[in-house]
Amino acid sequence: RKCLFYVLLVSVLASYAEDKKAKAPKQTPVRTLLKEARTAIKNNRDQRNKEKSILEALKREGLTNDQKAEIYLTASALEHSLNDQENLKAYLKQKYDTVAYYNTMLEASRYAILCDSIDTLANESGKVKPRYRGKNRDQLLLYRYNIYQGGRFFLRKSDYKNAYKYMSLYSDLAKHPLLVGHAKMQNDTLLQYSTYYSVLSAYNSNLHSDALRYIDSAISFADSSKCPVLQEYKVRCLQALKKDDEWLAQLKYGVNHYPKHDYFFVNLSKYYEDNKMQDECLALADSMLEHVQDATIYWYTKSLMFLHKEQWLKCVEMADVVLKREPEHINALYNKA
């Protein structure tokens, strides 16, 4: 009876599997999906649904690299078509969706980059024979300036996460193999701003690793007024990522290279205080007084360190220097008391 039961069970399961297989919907061939997408572009409607269909096809097994590249190329063309719709409305002075206008350019550019990344893979013979490089290059050059403007649009709205998408893409395109060496990439005056805005928008979105990707480049472009602020962002990002050794090294770098930007001195002296390194902190304050400026903050720091060292007379002496400058300096009054 047990044997009969197992035979029946196997038979039922096999029948169920066959029914399920028979009921599975037949997949539309990729070439048909691509043809439908091109028709949607021609007819200027249903582009979004056709884009979704071809991107879903990327999940299929057995796709060739040529098929994948063509899917991304077509997705880029669909976004380009949607952008044309908003562009036409703007030209006709009709109400248009500004966010959609910029987002379609962003997505078209991303798909062009994805297409190129597959299009330039070696074939079965080990040779690289890209078919779509020219089209992808033209797509990126067409939208590159407006990608920057899209970043500015979102920055004005304090939408830093979206601003970062645009500014980082603009910055990255300068190093992309598709565009390196192209005549239109020479003497790019906007790159210095895009790298700075990439850092700013990433930092304000708490994307600390992303901010660090661009920060050295931004510093290399920046003028003397922005360099200390960018170095502060660098230190803050390293602290947020708990990269303690790098954080300390960059904090010291900030003190040495931007001594009048108090953030670095305040935080380095606090580090010395927390780790009971009073002598190092006193040496730092003396160095700042000798080589930078005669500032109250350095005298107060000396008073505090002498307080920790229980050298009372020196503590009072340094507190008096502070109080002579700022009679109501509450912390100096505390130290003296």
Draw up the topology in text:
Elements: H1 2-23, H2 30-43, H3 47-56, H4 65-91, H5 98-119, H6 133-156, H7 160-173, H8 191-204, H9 208-221, H10 227-240, H11 244-257, H12 262-274, H13 278-291, H14 296-308, H15 312-325, H16 330-336
Helix pairs in contact: 2-3, 2-4, 3-4, 4-5, 5-6, 6-7, 7-8, 8-9, 9-10, 10-11, 11-12, 12-13, 13-14, 14-15, 14-16, 15-16
Provide an overview of this structure:
This protein has 337 residues and is mainly alpha-helical. 74% of the residues lie in helices and 0% in strands.
**SSE topology string:** HHHHHHHHHHHHHHHH
Output the radius of gyration.
31 Å
Instruction: Give a quick account of the main beta sheet: strands, pairing sense, barrel closure.
Output: none
Query: What is the tally of helical segments?
Result: 16
Pairing-aware structural class of the strands and helices? mainly alpha
Which ranges are low-confidence, i.e. pLDDT below 50, for 5 or more consecutive residues? none
Q: How big a fraction of the residues is strand?
A: under 5%
Termini distance? 97 Å
State the gist of this model.
The chain has helices at 2-23, 30-43, 47-56, 65-91, 98-119, 133-156, 160-173, 191-204, 208-221, 227-240, 244-257, 262-274, 278-291, 296-308, 312-325, 330-336. It has 337 residues and is mostly helical. The N and C termini lie far apart (97 Å).
Keywords summarizing the entry:
16 helices, 337 residues, elongated, mainly alpha, 74% helix
